[in-house]
What does this fold into?
Amino acid sequence: MDNKTYEDKIIERRIRYDKAFKNSPHSPLLEEQKENFKEMSHFPIDEKYRVVAKFEENSNHEEIAILTSMGDERKYFRYGSFEFEFDGVKNRLTVFRPIDGDYFFLPFKDKTTGEESYKEGRYVELEKLSHGEIIVDFNTAYNPLCAYNDTTNCTKVPAENIFEIAIPAGQKKFNNYMKS
It folds into this structure.
């Protein structure tokens, strides 16, 4: 039986992420960045940013092209969307699926973008539940790999996933990562 709290699980996830960034040969950090890397900087954990919402799958799975950080395009299906409310403000986000992939992709920008979080936005994974709902935990929001150096190509956030509220959850921007 798992007696860990929600906060414990998020902290453990963050520790695993930090270890991978510091030690993995697949880390997006350059060797000189790894030398000084201590841990990621995050917003405080707040369970209010763990959203359970009704997922509305698009019947036609419209194909779109989304620009990348290096100026080319990647093809995605506009797979579906969901609505949620924070502090009395209703929001809708679009969930994408790569044409050649079987995972969901949820990029977003919010009022922390460019200030406390990465200037090009963040990504968050979602968990699809069997009864037409999804779980989106913004406490697990992470920066795209291009946030760490300019050697990687990342998908940009489409206009439909830019909201007018702050989501102070998940990772903060890169220059906050080098803690002493």
